[in-house]
Design goal:
alpha/beta, Rossmann fold, seven-stranded parallel sheet, two-stranded antiparallel ribbon
Length: 277
């Protein structure tokens, strides 16, 4: 149990990759604050963790709310008395070519993928600083490290047509990661990103075609999700491992950056893409 007595907050953890991250961390001993826009999926993950003998509570709401970062961090400190791991996972895509992309589309994606993580991390800064002060003087190998894992994408590394907003946001979260790794190294906080390639979730699940695309509701906007089956086949054929990843495999990459073995790894972008950059 490498994460025994640790406390993690995972945004967007009621479904998909976030859910698998929360379950993975909890299975290895961490107490988890689960977040989702909707109460039902968040409470379901909390119940699953608690039923398995773990510890979890829910923090419901949109990460884009101005006070969410303070509330999210505060939930961990109030319910569990500490905070060791932050995973900024919440997000979605809202694609279009640039000439058809509205300001609303641009700003919405930047808000959820960059501004929200920034606010969450800012809310944790004073706590991390105080922890470092109280733990100062520990010898190498005996230091206490805390972990931040920001979720990025290969779109933020190489760009992707039709995703100017998402590519820009995910490139920005990599920049934030590298800046905070330098700022927070003195506090013994490892700050890294995981850039996902094709991971099969409800947001990428193949659909029957443009006219039958599924949608999700975000702030009253019906946003199309899913990938055309032929396009999905083309994408998977270009992946050296021959297929898209599973949410559990995605969670495994995040887990690597949360355990003690990664204590000397910071400021890095780990690509989890089956070999495709």
């Amino acid at each position: 149990m490498k994460l025994e007595n640790k406390v993690a907050i995972v945004s967007g953890s009621g479904r998909g990759i976030g859910r698998e991250i929360a379950l993975k961390l909890a299975a290895d001993g961490a107490a988890v604050v689960v977040n989702d826009l909707d109460p039902a999926p968040a409470e379901a993950v909390v119940a699953e963790i608690n039923a398995a003998g773990g510890r979890a509570v829910a923090c419901i709401g949109s990460v884009t709310e101005a006070d969410f970062g303070t509330r999210f961090v505060g939930t961990a400190l109030e319910k569990f008395g500490r905070l060791d791991i932050i995973v900024n996972n919440a997000g979605y895509t809202w694609d279009n070519v640039i000439q058809k992309m509205s300001d609303e589309q641009w700003n919405a994606i930047l808000d959820v993928h960059v501004t929200a993580p920034f606010r969450i991390l800012r809310a944790a800064a004073d706590y991390f600083k105080e922890c470092a002060k109280s733990e100062a003087g520990a010898a190498p190998g005996e230091e206490s490290f805390r972990k931040v894992v920001n979720i990025s994408s290969v779109s933020g590394v190489a760009g992707n047509a039709g995703q100017a907003n998402y590519s820009a946001a995910k490139a920005a979260i990599n920049g934030l990661t590298k800046a905070l790794a330098k700022e927070w190294g003195r506090y013994k906080v490892n700050v890294n990103s995981v850039a996902f390639g094709l991971i099969k979730t409800r947001l990428t699940e193949a659909t029957a075609g443009e006219g039958n695309s599924a949608t999700i509701d975000v702030g009253g906007n019906q946003i199309k999700v899913g990938v055309n089956p032929q396009l999905m086949k083309n994408i998977e054929s270009a992946i050296p491992l021959g297929r898209g990843g599973t949410p559990a495999e995605a969670a495994g990459a995040v887990y690597l950056l949360c355990i003690p073995e990664s204590n000397y790894v910071t400021g890095q972008v780990l690509i989890c893409g089956g070999g495709r950059p």
